[in-house]
Amino acid sequence: MSALELAQSLIKIKSVSPNDEGCFDLIEAQLIPLGFAIERVPELNCETLLAKFGDSGKVFCFLGHTDIVPSGPEEEWTSPPFEANIIDGELIGRGAADMKGSVAVFIESLKKFLKEYPKPNFQIWIMLTSNEEGEPEDGKIDTLINSLTAQKNFIDYCLVGEASSSQSVGDVLRVGRRGSLSGNLKLIGKQGHVAYPQKVLSPILEAGPIINELKNTVWDKGNKFFDPTSFQISNIESGTGATNVVPGNLTMLFNFRFSPESTAESLQERFVNILKKSKCEFEIDWTLSANPYLTKKTDFLSMIQTALKKINGEEAEVNNGGGTSDGRWVSPSGSEVIELGPINKTIHQIDERISLEDLEKLQEIYQQILIEINNLIH
Length: 378
Ligand SMILES: [Zn+2]
Prior knowledge:
succinyl-diaminopimelate desuccinylase activity, amino-acid biosynthesis, 2 domains, about 375 residues, Alpha-Beta Plaits, Aminopeptidase, six-stranded mixed sheet, alpha+beta, about 25% strand, binds zinc ion, elongated, hydrolase, 9 helices, four-stranded antiparallel sheet
């Protein structure tokens, strides 16, 4: 099966998170003939597939996912989202760029690489989840990661095939991601008649200076690889609907996207200190969705940049923007984690697509990365 055929077959499977719906079976059928040993590790409501080739040397792992976000209204698509049609040289369908295309071309790269180098001097793993996009309650790759960590079975080089590129394939890669910390604040005042200000405590008026201070606080300055930590409020609710009643409560949902110059604990503490300036009592429910990570070692980065120079004629820009990714699970054990994949312009959108030219280019880049690892490590 060619990379394009595999990408099309995967797109035809409606594998909305956390359901794999048979994508793993298709992928296994490609990997077993190449000599990979396959494990399926159960997570809460999903599975992680781990395929391994070789048993000595450094461990290189391709990390990816087979799940997709919902298509949205199918009638708005130029071509149905689960038909994987090719229109004007572009493969259209949910998951084309995020990231069934990457998975398919990586497998093609492996086939070509192993033909040329049947006994590579490093181990090759492929780790795939069916719940990258979905809710943490359905499970992530943490059961597998924890068991690998317990066995001191570490990944040296981790390539995440997420859509990192901006204008052309390989123009941008990521060596880290920001953290995400959310909170649900309840500000507790005292309800009463608007005509008796001395008898009420308005959580809305108390929220004013707090929000102002939160907006103006410099949480950190970021660093060479990260923008400064940012704070945003996504929802505020208060009020009874009546004009003559001061409400007793206000709720506010907020989020920090934070650089490694801050920690979840330091942000929580500073947030609480600002809240304490209000006369209101308060309660906060915190959710830490992801800690930031940054790969500081540069061996793998230089191998990838060398590969990009050979295929694209230039190195990629290093940029750590965007949401969070599963790279965060692998990074804490000291792995070098790098994200490099398709152009991210259409991901999660109606008419998600990848050009056939880009699929080809990405396949060449992944293959060259495997060659560089084989040349450079012993
Ligand atoms: Zn993705």
